């Protein structure tokens, strides 16, 4: 049983990085596709399209921070379950917010191409999703501090 | 094209078409649009071509008769089984054409719908047949544009009629576009919209060309001006419809 909990602990330790990386890759691909398409139809402003399309890359960074906060000198039965719970759930949050952020960024790029004056405000939904990722990060750090070492 | 990323790139590479009648020219040329459509996978490109063929006037013009158009529309709708909204769009377009065809037939003196199955398509055939004498074929309570079309066709206001029909078709496209942002349906809806905008812009170009012709004729022969102007206006909006003519070029 202990070995199983230890295995879960390692799984939870790496989950925020792995799931965060998948979310970031997926989100950046969605936003990047929109940016590339928009560049075909625009005479300028390429930098801002590419710039916003990279916004979902923050999820993997948050995942790395969570992994380091969960890291202990040893993974054992006492801390394995906590690592699993915090790591997997925060990882799934990063995965989901990364993908959804990519989708709303694609919509924002598409809409602001037709109406450039809404470029700033169209990023608001993506910023809100970023906020949710930050919530998950902050409370994962808080809980990691209370874990038995 | 089979993954959502490529659809996103394709859709965002297409310029915004804007509101109907708000532009004097299309924001993307036919050549450029064809180039962009090369990003579609062969199966989708074929379906799109078929859909345009059966909805655009240029596509149905070479067909022998109305029944052939209807048969072709049935095949295309069956082929779009994976895309129910596109099926509804093509069906809606055929029904709109049927209503316009009925209005024109009635304007031309036909006193009954006759064998409507041979020239009409869709849900309203029995209503049209049963309410032939009604200005809106009994559909006015939920399709008020039919009564307006009846009035315009009686008044021989061809421009007004064209505007009304294009507005109705654009409204149908708007309705189905709400649920599709980055997928094959969105591409299809964009192309159908483009065809309408292009058609309207071409009318303006034709109008300008004919006006120039009239002015040149006036300059060369002042006495013949009236005749030239008459022939110009006749060319512009000649009503050479078969029963299913109507909505797209």
How is this fold's topology laid out?
The complex is a heterodimer of chains A (149) and B (249).
Chain A (H helix, E strand, L loop, with lengths): L1 H39 L5 H8 L4 H13 L6 H38 L4 H4 L1 H22 L4
Chain B lengths: L3 H9 L17 H8 L4 H14 L1 H4 L5 H14 L4 H24 L17 H6 L13 H11 L3 H20 L6 H37 L4 H12 L13
Helix pairs in contact in B: 3-5, 3-10, 5-6, 6-8, 6-9, 8-9, 9-10, 10-11
Helix-and-strand structural type of chain A: mainly alpha
Number of strands of chain A: 0
Largest interface: A-B, 17 and 15 residues
What's the helix count of chain B?
11
Q: Stretches of chain A where pLDDT falls below 50 for ≥5 residues? A: none
Distance between the termini of chain B: 27 Å
Shape of chain A: elongated
Question: What is the domain total for the residues of chain A?
Answer: 1
Indicate the proportion of strand residues of chain A.
under 5%
Tell me about the largest β-sheet of chain B: none
Membrane topology (chain A): Multi-pass membrane protein
GO molecular function (chain A): proton transmembrane transporter activity
Keywords (chain A): Membrane, Transmembrane, Transmembrane helix
InterPro entries (chain A): ATPase_proteolipid_c-like_dom, F/V-ATP_Csub_sf
């Amino acid at each position: 049983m202990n070995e199983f909990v230890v295995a879960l602990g390692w799984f939870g330790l790496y989950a925020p990085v792995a799931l965060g990386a998948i979310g970031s890759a997926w989100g950046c691909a969605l936003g990047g596709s929109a940016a590339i398409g928009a560049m075909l139809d625009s005479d300028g402003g390429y930098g801002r399209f590419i710039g916003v399309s990279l916004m979902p890359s923050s999820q993997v960074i948050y995942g790395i921070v969570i992994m380091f906060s969960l890291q202990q000198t040893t993974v054992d039965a006492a801390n394995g379950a906590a690592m699993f719970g915090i790591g997997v759930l925060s990882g799934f949050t990063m995965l989901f917010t990364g993908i959804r952020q990519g989708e709303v960024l694609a919509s924002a790029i598409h809409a602001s191409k037709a109406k450039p004056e809404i470029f700033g405000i169209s990023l608001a939904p993506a910023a809100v999703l970023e906020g949710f990722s930050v919530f998950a990060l902050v409370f994962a750090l808080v809980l990691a501090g209370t874990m038995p070492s | 094209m089979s993954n959502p990323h490529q659809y996103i790139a394709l859709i965002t590479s297409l310029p915004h078409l804007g509101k109907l009648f708000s532009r004097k020219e299309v924001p993307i040329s036919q050549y450029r649009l064809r180039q962009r459509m090369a990003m579609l996978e062969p199966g989708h490109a074929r379906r799109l071509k078929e859909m345009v063929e059966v909805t655009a006037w240029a596509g149905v013009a070479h067909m022998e008769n109305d029944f052939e158009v209807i048969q072709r529309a049935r095949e295309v709708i069956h082929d779009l089984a994976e895309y129910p909204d596109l099926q509804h769009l093509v069906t809606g377009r055929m029904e709109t054409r049927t209503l316009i065809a009925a209005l024109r037939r009635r304007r031309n003196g036909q006193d009954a719908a006759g064998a409507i199955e041979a020239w009409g398509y869709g849900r309203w055939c029995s209503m049209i047949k049963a309410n032939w004498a009604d200005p809106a074929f009994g559909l006015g309570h939920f399709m008020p544009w039919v009564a307006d079309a009846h009035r315009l066709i009686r008044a021989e206001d061809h421009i007004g009629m064209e505007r009304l029909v294009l507005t109705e078709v654009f409204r149908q496209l708007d309705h189905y576009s709400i649920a599709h942002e980055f997928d094959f349906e969105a591409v299809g809806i964009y192309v159908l919209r483009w065809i309408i905008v292009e058609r309207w812009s071409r009318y303006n170009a034709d109008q300008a060309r004919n006006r120039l012709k009239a002015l040149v004729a006036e300059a060369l022969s002042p006495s013949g001006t009236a005749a030239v102007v008459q022939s110009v206006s006749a060319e512009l909006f000649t009503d050479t419809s078969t029963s299913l003519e109507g909505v797209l070029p």
